[in-house]
Design a protein that fits this description.
Organism: Stappia indica
Largest sheet: 5 strands, antiparallel
Protein name: Helix-turn-helix domain-containing protein
Number of helices: 9
Keywords: DNA-binding, Transcription, Transcription regulation
Strand order of the largest sheet: 1-2-9-4-7
GO molecular function: DNA-binding transcription factor activity; sequence-specific DNA binding
Shape: globular
Order of helices and strands: EEEEEEEEEHHHHHHHHH
InterPro entries: AraC_XylS_family_regulators (IPR050204), Homeodomain-like_sf (IPR009057), HTH_AraC (IPR018060), HTH_AraC-typ_CS (IPR018062), Tscrpt_reg_AraC-type_HTH (IPR020449)
Structural class: alpha+beta
CATH architecture of the largest domain: Sandwich
Distance between the termini: 52 Å
CATH superfamily of the largest domain: Jelly Rolls
CATH topology of the largest domain: Jelly Rolls
Strand content: 15-25%
Number of domains: 3
């Protein structure tokens, strides 16, 4: 992706203008958080690159920007969760005022093509909405990534993959003229899903991505994700977490294992992550479950 100058990033921001610059990159999609260092106006400019689009969501309340189209400038005021979209096929010039704090996602155009045979492979000419609008679905999906960007939660590759896939699918269905017909729901798992479940079972104690599973199953990531949800009624990440919690519950019957050891064996990032997941599933902490149903525990 082309940048305006060596001192600016690919979105046109200078490092000296930013108090926060965080990034989580997938194979072709990148999530970012950028926060300005002050309320002083700054100018950003990027030439057309044809690389896709960037979708941004404001986390602050007092940001404004004058976006230039030709010789005219249009001012937009951003509240919390306000959205904007930049098409990298179009030159972008803007003056930004008030302190900004944005969650952003960069998406290449080819991700908006159906990656299977369920629909026409037609590239949308535009995915657009009015600058400053809000969309609860986009807010929910982008907010799920925020703790990992800031380091508050460990990076979970499969979870990030699924958020990215859900976001692209939603944007394609909501804001582009592409519709993908639903596939027939099968009564029993198809060979594809049976193979995927074996891969997931082998990954209970580690990390696995949608790309890894789709590649080993010899299908596209988009096709795999859609078929998995249609057949099993949950996402791969939800299924994996459910199995990890079930395995952990079985290990809680072994009093020689500490909660931290069980968390590690079952693929949880730490004991706190294990406790939260277990509590959501069974309505009590692992320690309490072990006391009531699994026998005496070690510390």
């Amino acid at each position: 992706m082309t940048v305006v100058a060596s001192s600016r990033d690919r979105l046109g921001c200078r490092a000296t203008d930013l108090a926060r610059d965080e990034e989580v990159a997938l194979a072709d999609i990148t999530f970012l958080r950028k926060t300005s260092a002050s309320e002083s106006p700054v100018k950003v400019e990027t030439p057309p690159s044809g690389q896709g689009l960037v979708l941004g969501m404001s986390l602050g309340e007092s940001h404004w920007r004058d976006i230039r189209i030709g010789k005219a400038a249009h001012r937009h005021h951003f509240q919390r969760n306000s959205l904007y979209l930049r098409d990298f096929e179009i030159a972008y010039r803007a003056e930004l005022g008030g302190q900004f704090d944005f969650l952003l996602v960069e998406i290449p155009w080819n991700r908006f093509l159906p990656q299977d045979d369920t629909g026409p492979r037609v590239m949308p000419r535009r995915i657009d909405f009015e600058t400053g609008v809000t969309d609860p679905t986009v807010t929910h999906l982008l907010s799920a990534i925020q703790p990992m960007l800031s380091g508050q939660q460990p990076t979970d590759q499969l979870f990030i993959d699924q958020v990215a896939e859900a976001l692209v699918t939603y944007l394609r269905h909501r804001y582009a003229a592409i519709r993908i017909p639903a596939c027939r729901r099968e009564r029993t798992p198809s060979p594809l899903i049976r193979q995927a479940l074996e891969i997931l079972r082998d990954s209970l104690d580690g990390n696995v991505s949608l790309d890894d599973i789709a590649r080993r199953c010899n299908v596209s990531r988009s096709h795999f994700y859609q078929v998995f949800r249609q057949e099993l009624g949950c996402t791969p990440h939800e299924w994996l977490m459910r199995m990890r919690v079930e395995q952990a519950r079985s290990l809680l019957r072994r009093p020689e294992l500490t909660l931290a050891e069980i968390a590690g064996r079952c693929g949880f990032s730490d004991q706190s992550h294990f406790t939260r997941s277990f509590n959501r599933r069974f309505g009590m902490s692992p320690g309490r479950w072990r006391t009531e149903y699994g026998g005496a525990a070690t510390a």
